[in-house]
Specification:
The complex is a heterodimer of chains A (about 600) and B (about 230). Chain A is α/β, with parallel strands linked by helices and about 600 residues long. Chain A is about 35% helix and about 15% strand. At the A-B interface, helix 9 of A face helix 1 of B.
Chain lengths: ~600, ~230
């Protein structure tokens, strides 16, 4: 066997759709730019895959990043990249669509294009090549990929993908001209960004002077796309069931989109606003169909903060009752540290008991107020005490380091909270302690993201991160308490790309040329190579990562309208620095500025 | 009630690992509405066992699985429901009720393989017949088995001759592959992977076999009752 895990490439899974290419008008290759088992865990892929394949004359096939061993064989044998379904060449498709879930997957995109024999730069691709498009959360700052993509989809993809294919179909039947197609969709569709139709000027200090459309009749500001009604929206009734073990090996059911907490570090919490829920009836109907079609033994209720679902109790008890005899369990990907979550635990634990994960995000109350994470130490104490009482013994705590205004005291709070959890366990009477206690504190290095109140904040330097990590690491001297942390060098590169402008695309290209790929995998991340690429291009990484921006600066992503206004984000940043919190907007509108917010009627 | 089923594993699905197969069947039972018995406890799992795992990349017409049911079920109904839910390359082709005495892994002792390979050198059947005669005269053929013992890698020599029932040459097929038929020890009482046999033959006989292009298919498995090779009960 020349490659490991060959089932990454064979397809033929349950619920795979394979259509005869002769009976299809538009062929879409959907790519998650990482390895199969990561990509198959992504709910968005399952949605778009089934959405497109539901259309009789359209087809969607999958392509992932071949693992390094497969790439080596493909290059050696000159095998072009093919799709999983038909095993036909990716370059013969009409569309090649990438989902942008994390910045460190970008070099894989270039590698996929190259392996497919598709020119990497948009300007080098004529009508003979697929239209290369991208969407997903990272597309909200599309500029670092501007040279490679023909167009970006901004916002939710369900409606816009089919509309794009429809217009393309029309053009294809009337003599397709790429430029004409791109101009038409930019001029007529909402949520589309064609980077080649815009230009940017820079100031002497490297910041953006202005940006402008190069043709008339196209918008200066790109509004995101958003689905109004989630119940009538397309939701998959089946999912491809991989043979190999994937990261997320279960049914994923989306309860709602959006989030009302307003955590100031969280990009998803801003760009997916406003909150929109599916009804319990619709979810039960979907669950039934998904269990029947997949045979999966677990349903994960996945949303940004699933415990916020307004009918959570009803939904969970209905699911438990309906599927208990089929041994189908229900799980929540994350729990908030509040009383609602504790009640939910009681329901779920009937079938399966796994480790529990909580995300206080910051070690001190002061810093949790800064980031507007609306939980306090009492919440943690209550939640964890309850968990221990009910028999859980393994607790994971998620933190970030490098948050704005952070002091040594805040950092030490990571250790203190972990020790508090330990004490809560061992302060119980010995006869009531169940299981083998372990608390794991994981710290990631904070990466400021576009469209968050912290988008102006300069990231900690690698040295500062390392000092803080060593500070915590050195203070924890207990076998029951484990401290994990992310590599600050990865977070530094992520910060450069996340808040990058058009010039970062050259960096991505150069880094890829020099062999960077799978940068999100620690065993493949080549920090030195990234540094070399930057120095060859005369780029200063700290300009993007560590520099604090002024409110008056033109940010590279300012031309995208995600819903919440820039004014609101500025106001939130100002409040953050003062340690002032903002309430959950379910409790009353906080004025984020989103147009005709659907939840206004629901919660007011 | 226990159903002993025989199933295929062909085409691309030969690349599924043993664990992949376990996951596939777990979900297929649920999907097909099979009243399978579950184990007790906090993490209930369906009670079934697959006999001798196949090496990754080997096809088979003779995989066996014992399935424990909570209610009686007609074997024909079982086959029909399962095959509707299973992918094309994995299909149940036999099913009967058995009394459980011993596990499949302890019963299966021999596997019959079809081995196909290409070689530039072997244009004449007669050449291979001669090579096979030489092979049969060898009293001992050692191969190196690598094993991981904890962190240490341990190597040991193993004489594979006693693990071979018989080998016959079947000639060339329509695609230009040479076809061998081999009966090899398989299971707890001794195990020889077909690819290990081919590698050893290549080493001893210098047949110019392209080792990247060896196609292997398990055709049948047998039990061993006091030295006698028997059909599976």
């Amino acid at each position: 066997m020349k490659v490991e895990k060959p089932s990454r490439y064979i397809g033929m899974e349950q619920n795979m759709v394979q259509k005869n290419p002769d009976e299809v008008d538009v062929r879409f290759a959907f790519s998650f730019p990482d390895v199969y088992e990561v990509g198959m865990s992504h709910l968005g892929m399952h949605i778009l895959y089934n959405l497109i394949n539901n259309e009789p004359r359209y087809s969607c096939e999958r392509v992932f990043a071949p693992w390094v061993d497969m790439e080596e064989q493909m290059r050696k044998e000159s095998i072009p990249l093919f799709t999983i379904e038909s095993k036909e060449e990716v370059k013969d498709f009409d569309f090649l669509g990438f989902t942008l879930q994390y910045e460190m997957s970008y070099t894989n995109i270039l590698n996929i294009l190259d392996l497919a024999g598709i020119p990497i730069h948009s300007r080098e691709r004529g009508e003979d090549f697929p239209l290369v498009i991208a969407g997903g959360p990272c597309a909200y700052n599309p500029e670092p990929l501007w040279e490679f993509m023909d167009l970006f989809v901004i916002g939710e993809g369900e409606e816009v993908t089919l509309e794009l294919m429809k217009i393309y179909d029309k053009h294809k039947k009337n003599g397709y001209n790429k430029r004409k197609f791109l101009e038409e969709v930019q001029a007529t569709m909402e949520g589309i960004y064609v980077p080649s139709l815009y230009d940017v000027n820079y100031n002497d200090d490297g910041t953006i002077k202005d940006r402008f459309p190069m043709i008339s009749g196209i918008p200066e500001v790109i509004d995101k796309r958003m689905i109004r009604d989630l119940d009538s929206m397309f939701s998959p009734e089946k999912m491809i069931v991989p043979y190999m073990e994937t990261v997320h090996d279960r049914i994923s059911m989306e309860l709602f989109r959006g989030c009302t907490h307003g955590c100031r570090f969280c990009q998803a919490g801003m760009i997916y606003r406003p909150i929109r829920e599916k009804s319990v009836d619709r979810l039960m109907e979907l669950a039934e169909k998904l269990v029947d079609s997949t045979g999966y033994e677990n349903i994960s209720l996945s949303s940004l903060s699933s415990c916020d679902y307004s009918q959570l109790h009803l939904l969970i008890s209905s699911l438990m009752e309906r599927f208990e005899d089929r041994k189908v369990g229900v799980s929540l990907p994350s729990l908030r540290l509040d009383s609602v979550s504790i009640d939910i635990l009681k329901e779920i634990e009937k079938v399966r008991k796994t480790g529990l994960t909580f995300a206080p995000e910051a070690g001190s109350q002061r810093l949790r107020d800064v980031i507007n994470k609306g939980v306090d130490e009492d919440d943690l104490v209550n939640a964890v005490s309850y968990a221990f009482k009910e028999g859980w013994s393994r607790i994971k705590l998620y933190f970030m380091i490098g948050l704005p205004t952070e002091t040594d005291e805040d950092v030490m709070g990571i250790k203190e909270l972990s020790y508090l959890v330990k004490d809560l366990f061992f302060n119980r009477p010995p006869e009531e302690r169940k299981g083998n206690f372990q608390v794991t504190a994981s710290a990631s290095c904070f990466v400021p993201k576009p469209f968050t109140p912290f988008q102006w904040h300069g990231q900690d330097t690698i040295e500062e991160f390392n000092d803080k990590i060593n500070f915590v690491k050195g203070s924890i001297k207990d076998k029951k308490v484990t401290f994990n942390y992310h590599d600050p060098r990865v977070s530094y590169m992520e910060a450069i790309v996340a808040r990058g402008d058009r010039r970062v695309s050259s960096l991505l290209y150069r880094a890829w040329e020099k062999g960077c790929r799978f940068d999100g995998w620690s065993e493949h991340f080549k920090y030195e190579t990234w540094l070399e690429a930057m120095s060859e291009l005369g780029m200063d990484g700290s300009f993007y990562a560590n520099r604090s921006r002024d409110f008056s600066e033109n940010l590279p992503w300012d031309f995208i309208n995600p819903g919440p206004s820039k004014k609101y984000l500025q106001n939130e940043y100002t409040k953050a620095i003062k340690g002032e919190t903002t309430r959950d907007c379910r409790l009353g509108c906080t004025g984020c500025g989103i147009k005709d917010c659907a939840m206004w009627g629901v919660f007011n | 009630m226990i159903l002993r089923t025989r199933f295929t594993k062909v085409g691309y699905l030969k690349y599924l690992s043993h664990l992949d197969m376990v996951r596939l069947f777990t979900r297929t039972f649920s999907k097909a509405g099979i009243p399978i018995k579950f184990s007790e406890g906090f993490n209930p799992h369906p009670k079934f066992s697959i006999g001798n795992p196949l090496p990754l990349g080997t096809e088979s017409m003779a995989e066996y699985m014992d399935v424990e049911l909570a209610e009686r079920m007609n074997p024909e109904t079982f086959i029909e429901r399962m095959n509707n839910a299973l992918p094309e390359g994995i299909q149940i082709i036999g099913c009967k009720t058995v009394e459980r005495r011993a596990s499949l892994t302890s019963i299966i002792a021999w596997s019959h393989y079809e081995i196909r390979f290409v070689s530039e050198k072997l244009d004449e059947d007669i050449y291979f017949e001669g090579a096979l005669t030489r092979w049969n005269r060898l009293s001992q053929v050692n191969i190196t088995k690598k094993k991981k013992k904890g962190k240490k890698k341990v190597e040991r020599q193993l004489d594979i001759k006693p693990l071979i029932g018989n080998i016959t040459y079947k000639g060339k097929d329509s695609e230009g592959f040479h076809v061998l038929s081999a009966l090899l020890k398989s299971g707890e009482s001794g195990n020889l992977k077909p690819i290990e046999l081919v590698e050893a033959m290549e080493r001893e006989l210098e047949l110019s076999i392209d080792l990247d292009m060896v196609m292997i298919k398990r055709l049948d498995v047998f039990a061993d009752e006091d030295g006698e090779i028997k059909e599976l009960a």
